[in-house]
Amino acid sequence: MAEKQVSLPAKLINGGVAGLVGVTCVFPIDLAKTRLQNQQGVQVYEGMLDCLSKTVRSEGYFGCYRGAAVNLTLVTPEKAIKLAANDIFRQKLSRDGYLPLWGEVLAGCGAGTCQVVVTTPMEMLKIQLQDAGRLAAQRPVPTPAQAAAPGPAPTLVAPPPARPSPPPRASAMGITAELLKTKGLAGLYRGAGATLMRDVPFSMIYFPLFANLNALGREKLGDVQARAPFWQSFMAGCGAGSVAAVAVTPLDVIKTRLQTLQKGAGEDTYKGIVDCTQRIMMREGPSAFLKGATCRALVIAPLFGIAQGVYFLGVGETLLDLLG
């Protein structure tokens, strides 16, 4: 079915604004998802709420937003590419105002493929920053007796309890510089295959499902589909996003494990997608592939609901009209 034509600059603006708003709202849940998925031996967190509670206690409220700067910086081109590419592919594949289901799936496939160029380095950096708090929580803390133990030169005054010095706080720029120095550009694209393996099926499920949910009850004005109201676009985005997110959660677990550079004590490292899949299955069982599924649904549903709501409200068109 035909949609109202929107200019490419407006699509890019809509996608960027939608991404910024969505990520700001749901980033703490995304952080919990990453930490839960990376747990192998030592279970630091028992669930999403326990993870968020412990994060706030140990790292403060803004600890829940570790890695958010990377996401907020790169989510604009990522969401803009994803949403704009899907619309462009849909328009190119439409014939006489009609887009068959295979065309909707193919358009979603193209959108998921295009976004990986931005998604992979964004996820790579974000995961290292998000998981740093989990690794710090695994480090042993000295007991009071150990902390108060006298040094090599005893004195008459008892020394104050020694506190372990925290490791230097990682930054996105520092991680990027180290990866480029040691592994080149390929270092930033570690896990690109797993990212593609996750994002392409996600888009193939999400975009056709969203388009059909968003078209329910809408009338056609001539050869153009009437614009959906905000609430319908929001609910369609939430529904399609949650279904697609849960469906590809096993692939997201594999991607997260492969892209995590620093491992905790006794945690596995992986040689590739097949090795990661086999090790998780043998050592943790099939249920490990659904780690963070609830968090992922709670992240993706409002993220894409907000994204599609903003997109179909036409924020980009309005902004271009004001500037023009």
TrEMBL record:
Q: Where in the cell is it found?
A: Mitochondrion inner membrane
Q: Where are the Solcar repeats?
A: 6-92, 99-216, 228-317
Q: Does the keyword Transmembrane helix apply?
A: yes
Q: How does it sit in the membrane?
A: Multi-pass membrane protein
Ranges of Low complexity composition bias in the record: 139-150
Its GO CC terms are: mitochondrial inner membrane
> One GO biological process from the UniProt record?
malate-aspartate shuttle
User: Per its UniProt record, what Pfam families does this chain match?
Assistant: Mito_carr
* Coiled-coil annotated residue ranges, if any: none
Task: Show the GO MF annotations.
Answer: L-aspartate transmembrane transporter activity; L-glutamate transmembrane transporter activity; symporter activity
Q: Where is the composition biased (Pro residues)?
A: 151-169
Which residue ranges does the record annotate as region Disordered?
Answer: 139-170
So what does this thing catalyse? L-glutamate(in) + H(+)(in) = L-glutamate(out) + H(+)(out)
State the UniProt keywords alphabetically.
Membrane, Mitochondrion, Mitochondrion inner membrane, Phosphoprotein, Repeat, Symport, Transmembrane, Transmembrane helix, Transport
Q: Which PANTHER family does the annotation name? A: MITOCHONDRIAL 2-OXODICARBOXYLATE CARRIER 1-RELATED, MITOCHONDRIAL GLUTAMATE CARRIER 2
The protein's job, in short, is: Responsible for the transport of glutamate from the cytosol into the mitochondrial matrix with the concomitant import of a proton (symport system).
Q: Which family does it belong to?
A: Belongs to the mitochondrial carrier (TC 2.A.29) family.
Q: What's the name of the protein?
A: Mitochondrial glutamate carrier 2
